[in-house]
Amino acid sequence: MAAAWALCLFLPGAHAQTTQEFTLKNGMKVIVKEDHRAPTVAHMVWYRAGSMDEQNGTTGLAHVLEHMMFKGTRTLKPGEFSQRVAALGGRENAFTSKDYTAYFQQIEKSNLEKVMALEADRMANLVFSKDEFAREIRVVMEERRWRTEDQPIPLLYESLYATAYQAHPYRHPIVGWMSDLQTMTVEDTKHWYERWYAPNNATLVVTGDVDARRVLALAEKHYGRIPKKPLPMTRTQVEPEQQGMRRVIVKAPAENPYVALAFKVPTLRDVEKDDEAHALDVLAAILDGYDNARLNARLVRTDRVAVSAGAGYSNINRGPSLFVLDGTPADGVTTEQLEKLLRAEVERIANEGVSESELERVKTQLVASQIYKRDSIFGQAMEIGTMEMSGISHKLIDRIIEKLRAVKAEQVQAVARKYFGDDKLTVATLVPLPLSEKKAPPPPKGLRH
Known about the structure:
Helices cover 40% and strands 18% of the residues. It is globular, with a radius of gyration of 23 Å. The protein is α+β, with helices and mostly antiparallel strands. The chain has 16 helices and eleven strands. The strands form two sheets. The chain has a six-stranded mixed beta sheet, sandwiched between helices. It has two domains: 9-222, Cytochrome Bc1 Complex, Chain A, domain 1 (2-Layer Sandwich); 246-433, CATH 3.30.830.10.
């Protein structure tokens, strides 16, 4: 869990890099990070529209439109966008999250303008073909079956989110509920595109061997001519206070049982003031931030009561956050027993605290583990975009590192005491059914990510 949810931060001073921010007249934000170590560029467009912006009955719409963005414009045939990027020797893809949708290309620096022109074209000139939609919606439904319905742990997490959140749209899966996909129309995707895909709802992030002023000139040339749109006023439902433990059981074909415990905890909103979020980040690292962290060292290696045990906390979100403990019990151990053992590790920190030596070791691991992100041009673009979409400026990336370094042992102990009781807890348990003799189907054709 921790590896997948870890906060991606860059160490200041690892390389001399310049980041500049601009805003075009049509409201599009442009962020450029120069990194001249290799003649490559990452070009990303982020739209602040994800599955949390959908309505009941049309879940999955943000993701379906992501697929449709590769199905042609007024000047490009279906699939031609990807063919042109490939012909330039580049790679491209897209992804949808609960908070945003993003599109990217990684190319040799001399081809930046060409991919920028392509991306600007589909921001303004997407074509909605009923035939292409009919083919693509089948791909998405197969993707849902392959990635969620036929996969026990993703299926469990779908139920976990739907149980932990009763009002907030985080309760819906990004891929959408199958019944909504079955009734979705091409007009639905067109309406979503017209509603959200506007320069004033987009952030362009370019990292790599570029000159910021040159990138700005290209952005003005290609994106600057696209008119802004009036953006919809949305009222995201606020999740009501949870008043007691919730449980959900998922029965599915699987090799092993599994349990996940999700506690409602604060989200990082103000980097300077939200010290509890920084302390929770450190707590996650103490439990599962490196090979010899507490959960793995005690439950897996020493006591051998779990095949796997993890902790994860994602505090960079537009919506609320969960702190998750999870694991697969060893033979002879029940999920109920593992559940208690996972909680006992947090209770041990709540009762006994953390030594200064362990805290410093963990913080060093937490910060140092991120240095590799700075070796990736694409990783830098990802971090900038993710921060911006959550409402936290990319300019505060290094400040978050400083705040993590400043976390004290008593702060970690305090959050361990405060947020891990029963009243804010949702537990999801996987009860394995016999595995089918039938082999798993291959990934659906057209699957992009």
